[in-house]
């Protein structure tokens, strides 16, 4: 059998993908997290590999099989994800699909017990590193940095602001006001320096393949 993607449009390229949620422990038995199935990120990793790229997929906790030809690094927290992304450099492109938790908790070493007086524990939240912004500002920045933005309203407006704020080349803006989370389809807008391109509602695999082809064209292979 022919090696996956051999001689494809992304042959010889190394592409980094983050996917899934992160889990931030509260104590040994509890965590806070974002809602994310990992489906879109895993589909993108698979599509890039199918075009011949060497793909490093840094994955938060999800129950999905690793796409063929993809090197997967499993992490739990945002801080672990940031370290794994850094360790995977250099890369020609990065696609940050992960739904990274914005905060972590100073985790308790033992299970937090309910108090007799019913007083809830006070969770002190600390902001996590912004992995996308950090990568975009990194001296070893990939030539193409793609972020995602899940928005429930003013989708393009928020994504355009996010693109500038984080220093990403493209933001794939995702309208999550419907049933995108865990669903099979995705409707996205690609926000670049040249404006906004709106794609029809497509299966996540089709979004992945279109994005992989667009990345191949941008890298000029
Ligand atoms: N992201 C990241 N590290 C973080 C938070 C977000 O790398 N700590 C990345 C995501 O993977 C995604 C992009 O940044 O590619 C946008 O994430 P989003 O949560 O929409 O952005 P935030 O800046 O956290 O804005 P918001 O307040 O809307 O959550
Ligand atoms: Ca966020």
TrEMBL record:
The keyword Magnesium applies. Its EC number is 4.1.1.36, 6.3.2.5. One of its GO terms (biological process) is pantothenate catabolic process. One of its GO terms (cellular component) is phosphopantothenoylcysteine decarboxylase complex. Keywords: Decarboxylase, Flavoprotein, FMN, Ligase, Lyase, Magnesium, Metal-binding, Multifunctional enzyme. It catalyses: (R)-4'-phosphopantothenate + L-cysteine + CTP = N-[(R)-4-phosphopantothenoyl]-L-cysteine + CMP + diphosphate + H(+); N-[(R)-4-phosphopantothenoyl]-L-cysteine + H(+) = (R)-4'-phosphopantetheine + CO2. Binds 1 FMN per subunit. CTP binds at residues 102, 111, 129-132, 148, 162, 166. Catalyzes two steps in the biosynthesis of coenzyme A. In the first step cysteine is conjugated to 4'-phosphopantothenate to form 4-phosphopantothenoylcysteine, in the latter compound is decarboxylated to form 4'-phosphopantotheine. Catalyzes two sequential steps in the biosynthesis of coenzyme A. In the first step cysteine is conjugated to 4'-phosphopantothenate to form 4-phosphopantothenoylcysteine. In the second step the latter compound is decarboxylated to form 4'-phosphopantotheine. This is Coenzyme A biosynthesis bifunctional protein CoaBC. It comes from Edaphosphingomonas laterariae. The chain holds residues 175 to 395 of 395 of the full protein.
């Amino acid at each position: 059998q022919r090696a996956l993607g051999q001689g494809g449009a992304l042959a010889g390229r190394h592409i980094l993908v983050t996917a899934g949620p992160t889990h931030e422990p509260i104590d040994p038995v509890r965590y806070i997290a974002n809602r994310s199935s990992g489906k879109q990120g895993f589909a993108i990793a698979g599509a890039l590999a199918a075009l011949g790229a060497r793909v490093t997929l840094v994955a938060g906790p999800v129950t999905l099989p690793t796409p063929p030809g993809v090197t997967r690094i499993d992490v739990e927290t945002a801080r672990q994800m940031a370290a794994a992304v850094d360790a995977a450099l250099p890369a020609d492109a990065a696609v940050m699909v992960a739904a990274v938790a914005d905060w972590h908790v100073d985790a308790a070493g033992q299970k937090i017990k309910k108090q007799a007086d019913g007083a809830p524990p006070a969770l002190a939240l600390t902001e996590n590193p912004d992995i996308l912004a950090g990568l975009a500002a990194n001296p070893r920045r990939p030539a193409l940095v793609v972020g995602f933005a899940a928005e429930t309203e003013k989708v393009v407006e928020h994504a355009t602001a996010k693109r500038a704020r984080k220093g990403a080349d493209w933001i794939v803006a995702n309208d999550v006001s419907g049933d995108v989370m865990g669903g099979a389809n995705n409707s996205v807008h690609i926000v670049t320096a040249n404006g906004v391109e709106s794609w029809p509602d497509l299966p996540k695999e089709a979004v992945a393949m279109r994005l992989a082809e667009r990345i191949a064209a941008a890298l000029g292979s």
